[in-house]
Each structure stands twice: as structure tokens, then as C-alpha cells.
Design brief:
Blueprint lengths: L14 H12 L5 H22 L6 H34 L15 H10 L9 H12 L2 H6 L5 E3 L5 E4 L2 H19 L14
Antiparallel strand pairs: 1-2
Length: about 200
């Protein structure tokens, strides 16, 4: 027989195994060795939990940038809503001029609109600045640029022909439209291999 401790028959432990179990049983779990392990485990767990629960605190620069972006988006939304409101206003008053599809407007039509608005009740009147902003956005729309063809009739507020689109104006609008289309077709890409990060 070997000297190694073995289980005896009848599920009784050998003397050597009983002695080993007794030694293990007498060790205090509150000893320094056990406390160190437990403490370090707890520290690791708490560090992991803190890292998960803590969000990075944005810097003042990041906060200011976010505020500028939010303000820009709010202003843009308000501008779009105001444009739609003014378009509905002018389409109702001058359906032969501001219709769909749009027609090339007479040169200096803003002066006619200024005069007409002065005759309206003060509560319903638009300011000259509001009229200028509306006309600027209206004449920069894609559908308006597309209607600006050489020789196309320009209309006044009543929808009457009062002139034609000149070659110079048609070329200017055509160039602006091509520039806009080239920006729409060309996607932004950083041309970096997959898996790399760019700064």
C-alpha cells in the first residue's frame, strides 16, 4: 500500500485526511490573507461599477458647441415654418404670381409687395425685412432656379407678363443649380481603410 491518504471502506476518511480537514477548519477566515483578497475583489467590483455608472463630463467648450448647434437647429426650423407661412400668405393674395410650379418674378417685385403690404391692416402687415427674407428664400429654391430659362416670361403680382429672363440671369441660376446638384451627388467620405480611426 502507498503512503498517500485514501478514503477507507465504509465512507470513513483516513486519519491523514481528517487531520488536514481539521487544520483547514481551524484557519480563521478573518485573517489578513483572506481579508486582502476580499477587499481587493470588492475594490475591483466597485471600480467597475463606478466606471459603468459615470458618464464623461462634457467640457465647457463641448457644452457651448452643443448650445450653438441646438440654437442653429431651432432657428432653422423657425425659418422654415415662417417661410411656409409667408408662402401661404402670398399664394392666397397673389395666386397668379406665387403658384406651383413657380414662375420667374418681375425684377423689382419686392417694391410692389412693400406698397401692397402698407395698404393692409397693421396687424396683418409683413415688414419689409420679412418680405425680403421670403423672396430671398423663394428665389433660391431648386424649383425656382429650374424655371429660370432664357426667354421665360417674368410675371408681376397679377400674373401678367412684364419681361423675359435674360441670358445673364438664366446662366447665373443654371450655375447655382449645378453647384447645388454637385454637392448633393458627392457624399462626404474620409477614404480611410476599414478598421482605422481618423482624427
Amino acid at each position: 500500500m502507498s503512503d498517500k491518504p485514501t478514503l477507507s471502506l465504509g465512507n470513513k476518511l483516513s486519519v491523514h485526511t481528517l487531520n488536514q480537514l481539521q487544520k483547514l477548519n481551524t484557519k480563521n477566515p478573518n485573517t489578513k490573507q483572506y481579508r486582502t483578497k476580499a477587499t481587493s475583489t470588492n475594490v475591483l467590483k466597485s471600480d467597475i461599477q463606478n466606471k459603468r455608472s459615470q458618464k464623461p463630463v462634457p467640457s465647457k467648450k463641448d457644452c457651448a458647441k452643443k448650445q450653438r448647434i441646438d440654437e442653429h437647429n431651432r432657428n432653422r426650423e423657425q425659418g422654415v415654418m415662417l417661410y411656409k407661412k409667408h408662402l401661404a400668405h402670398f399664394s392666397k393674395l397673389y395666386p397668379n404670381c406665387f403658384g406651383i410650379p413657380p414662375k420667374p418674378l418681375a425684377i423689382g417685385i419686392h417694391n410692389d409687395l412693400f406698397e401692397k403690404e402698407l395698404k393692409r391692416p397693421e396687424k396683418e402687415r409683413l415688414t419689409n425685412g420679412a418680405i425680403r427674407r421670403f423672396l430671398s428664400k423663394y428665389t433660391r429654391s431648386v424649383v425656382y432656379k429650374e424655371c429660370m430659362q432664357v426667354g421665360s416670361a417674368r410675371v408681376n403680382l397679377q400674373g401678367e407678363n412684364v419681361g423675359e429672363v435674360s441670358l445673364e440671369h438664366a446662366e447665373s441660376y443654371k450655375h447655382s443649380l449645378e453647384l447645388w446638384r454637385s454637392k448633393q451627388v458627392t457624399p462626404k467620405s474620409n477614404n480611410k481603410p476599414i478598421g482605422t480611426t481618423g482624427k
